[in-house]
Amino acid sequence: MLKCIPDETIDLVVTSPPYANKRKNSYGGVPADKYNEWFLPITKEIKRILKPTGSFVLNINDVVQDQVKHPYVYDLVRNMVDDDWKWIDTFIWQKPNPTPRQVTYRFKDGFEYIYHFTKNIPFKRDPSAVRVPMSETTKKLIKSAKNRPDYDVRTYSVSGMNKKVSNLAKLGGKVLPSNVLTMGVSSNKTVHTAVYPKKLPEFFIKFLTNKGDVVLDPFHGSGTTSVVAKENCRHYIGFDKMPEYVDVSKKRITDTDNDHCGVL
């Protein structure tokens, strides 16, 4: 389906494909040793359809093979960089409620990776859309600094970065978040075997697109990305190979209200 999309027409691709050796019953499963061979042609199509200012956000995770971690994710990132993708950042999706398990050598997985790639620098972004309240610790650091005789109101170092205190005040005490995103695992497994929380695509949709932009999820599942895109006044495209999930996503999207968006 990616081949049906014209060149440079998509603002954001955000997706979570089946991980290596996972979802065998529904998606067939891709062995870790063959994952790059399978997925790299998909990344080339994604690069083709992205606008020059667009972003590709990939949620993926390690797998265990023969009792050890397989490096297929790291190989994938390396190969994408070699293919001239710009590797902007690595986010950690921290899960406060990971699935319990009993394993011999490892603890339960409390996080997954989210990789942010672009075609070019600069790229479209709106950091103000994802700012968070300043922590009490940072407020105390600034307050204590103001009491120092050598304090310079123009620039003050907070957590190793130069920040203008006056600008922080103008932002209403809000700062950029870290690249560790804490979001609970979705419990709605009845609609899909691997549902990610709505807040995950919402963060990147708000950060990397504007109202009226086009968001694509080529591994659509139950349609969470499109639901969030519609709620946030973005256009959406999604496709999935499982007909039952397509039906679920259609209903979820239809039931999603975006009357507040006006004419897009």
Kindly describe this structure:
The chain is of the alpha/beta class and 264 residues long. The protein folds into 2 domains: 2-131 and 177-254, Vaccinia Virus protein VP39 (Rossmann fold, 3-Layer(aba) Sandwich); 132-175, no CATH class. Helix content is 29%, strand content 23%. The protein contains 8 helices and 13 strands. The chain has helices at 24-27, 35-49, 72-82, 136-146, 165-170, 199-208, 224-231, 243-254; strands spanning 10-15, 50-60, 63-65, 68-70, 86-94, 111-118, 132-133, 156-158, 161-163, 174-175, 180-182, 214-217, 235-238. The strands form 4 sheets. A 7-stranded mixed β-sheet has the order 11-5-6-2-1-12-13. The chain has a two-stranded antiparallel sheet with strand order 3-4. It has a two-stranded antiparallel ribbon with strand order 7-10. Strand 12 (214-217), helix 7 and strand 13 (235-238) form a beta-alpha-beta unit. The chain is globular. The model is unreliable at 158-162 (pLDDT under 50).
